[in-house]
Specification:
Keywords: DNA-binding, Transcription, Transcription regulation. This is LysR family transcriptional regulator. By secondary structure, the protein is of the alpha/beta class. It has two domains: 86 residues, Winged helix-like DNA-binding domain superfamily/Winged helix DNA-binding domain (Arc Repressor Mutant, subunit A, Orthogonal Bundle), CATH 1.10.10.10; 214 residues, D-Maltodextrin-Binding Protein, domain 2 (3-Layer(aba) Sandwich), CATH 3.40.190. The chain has ten helices and eleven strands. Helix 7 links the parallel strand 7 and strand 8. The two termini are 58 Å apart. The mean pLDDT is 88.
């Protein structure tokens, strides 16, 4: 807002040029000159001047009222502009697998939002290959997921390993295999497997060496058996509860799944294991806001899963 209007508001509020000048930190002659200049520009008498001081004319009262309104509008506009600018500067787009959101990312994001209440934050949940595609296209800043075996060397990304985790196989409580004291991988072959992922055919360009993926599918005979698939964890749990399907998923989700009536099978051998961590673009690895969120993620990982083996 123009300084002359601010000066007028102060004089009109104080009804004393000397007091107003002190509050504005300018000389009284300068302030008096500026008020006379304002009256001349508007061609209106704003003050009744006398030896006892000044009072406002009717026009002066109207101008004071309107100037206060303009001041509020001006201040509100500046506040909104600052809010938009702050939000744009601190916008964060994060991808995650289903498990990691429930286990630690939700709390890390909550802490980040408290520190940056004006920030735009987008969370994209899905399988690691679609997340990698989003990262490489610039649609997300980072994502948390399992380390991608056979990833193309052309992908200019950085992987920050967090922990090693094993997959358990979750089923409904009444599943036929829950009545066994222990299960082998061979026991699983006759039952459908549910995979929490979308079709990955369109993401195969991201994989340079598919041998480990083929080996995993061969060990668990996934190419021969019935497969249910969904990109929704909620839908996947419903399918498992309504069938004899098997749901391989990180064992650290056992407590979460128990609330929905799913239990891990008593396997006498490891189903699979892998490291999980944070993927980000190499050029973004020094970004202050990304580093801040990474630090929060590490804090909650250490707090909740310090017992898990650190990934290399």
């Amino acid at each position: 807002m123009d300084r002359i209007w601010r000066q007028y508001m102060e004089v009109a509020s104080c009804k004393n040029v000397s007091h107003a000048a002190k509050k504005l930190c300018i000389s009284q002659p300068t302030l008096t000159h500026n008020m006379k200049k304002l009256e001349a520009e508007l061609d209106i008498v704003l003050f009744n001047r006398s030896s006892k001081g000044i009072t406002l004319t009717e026009s002066g009262e109207l101008l004071l009222e309107q100037t206060r309104i303009m001041q509020r509008l001006y201040d509100n506009t500046l506040s909104k502009l600052a809010h938009i600018n702050k939000r744009q500067e601190r916008e964060l787009k994060v991808g995650t697998g289903h498990a990691w959101w429930h286990l630690f990312l939700r709390e890390a994001v909550k802490d980040y939002r408290q520190k940056h209440p004006g920030a735009n934050i987008t969370i994209d949940v899905g399988n690691h290959l679609p997340q990698m595609d989003l990262l490489l296209s610039g649609d997300i800043d980072l994502f948390i997921g399992h380390e991608i075996t056979g990833l193309s060397r052309k992908a200019e990304v950085k992987f920050l390993p967090l922990r090693m985790t094993e997959n358990s196989v979750f089923v409904r409580k009444e599943h036929p295999l829950t009545y066994k004291e222990s299960c082998t991988l061979q026991d699983l072959v006759e039952f459908p497997t549910l995979e929490v992922k979308p079709s990955e055919d369109r993401y195969q360009h991201l994989i340079e060496d598919p041998q480990e993926i083929k080996l995993y599918r061969s060990i668990h005979q996934l190419t021969e058996k019935i497969i249910y698939a969904s990109n929704s964890l909620s839908v996947s749990m419903d399918l498992v509860k309504d069938s004899n399907a098997l749901l391989p998923f990180p064992e650290v989700m056992a407590d979460y799944f128990s609330d929905f009536g799913l239990v891990p099978l008593p396997l006498n051998e490891t189903y699979s294991k892998a490291s999980f961590g944070i993927y980000l673009l190499r050029e973004s690895s020094e970004d202050n806001h990304i580093c801040e969120l990474v630090a929060l993620i590490n804090h909650y990982i250490d707090e909740k899963f310090g017992y898990l083996k650190a990934a290399n």
